[in-house]
Amino acid sequence: MGKPESKPRLDAYEAVFSALAHAARRRVLLTIFFNGGSMTAGEIAAIFEHAWQTTTRHLRVLERAGLLAHEKRGRTRIYRIQRKRLELVRNWLAHFSKDSRH
To answer: What radius of gyration, in Å, describes the C-alpha atoms of the chain?
Structure first.
């Protein structure tokens, strides 16, 4: 078995997996991904049947987990997927691939 993960790394895993635990947030990520990797907050909200407050709450959770980042252009927020952060998920799941067993 490998060495234990450091505390900050565990916190990052916790943030990412907690954010991904909610189906609506997974749908938000997939929607942004299949729309070229970035969308405005309004475009995201228009797709989902949630209240605006619910959509923004989901976006904030994804952003705090490092899965999304935004930039402001005037009054518009453009959200982008942070692919590097998603590598945490792939790396963690790699522990379970048959190639990684000893």
So the answer is: 15
